[in-house]
Specification:
two-stranded antiparallel sheet; 133 residues; alpha+beta; two-stranded antiparallel ribbon
Amino acid sequence: MRQLPDADELVFKTIETYSDGTVSRWIEIPTGNTRPEQPAPVLELKAAAPGARPIAPSPDADATPAPAPSPSTTPSTTSAAPSEQAPEATEAAGKDDGGGRTGLVVTGVAVVVLAAAGGAWWLVRRRSGSSRS
């Protein structure tokens, strides 16, 4: 979100459905001094602190937003060099370092640890069984 709406508060009506079929509806808007039984979460918006600066530059009023990229299985055909890309795109590309591989690494380590523990258990069991004979 680039710009918060021009409002004093944002209300987030929420419906939770649990695995047992129970439904909680947090949709009642608090008004005045009355407190509803299941109030919707409310975020109060305030003006920025004096001297605060935006994290990223705001778009110009006459600029049109870029369309969101559509998911595609084919490689991108853009020929822009990394230095010609927008700073946000360059930062995002640098931060995405194959986070999907982290899960594979963790799973691999867990399998190795379990295999080593199983092997140690088997070895201890085998040695204790042969000493009884």
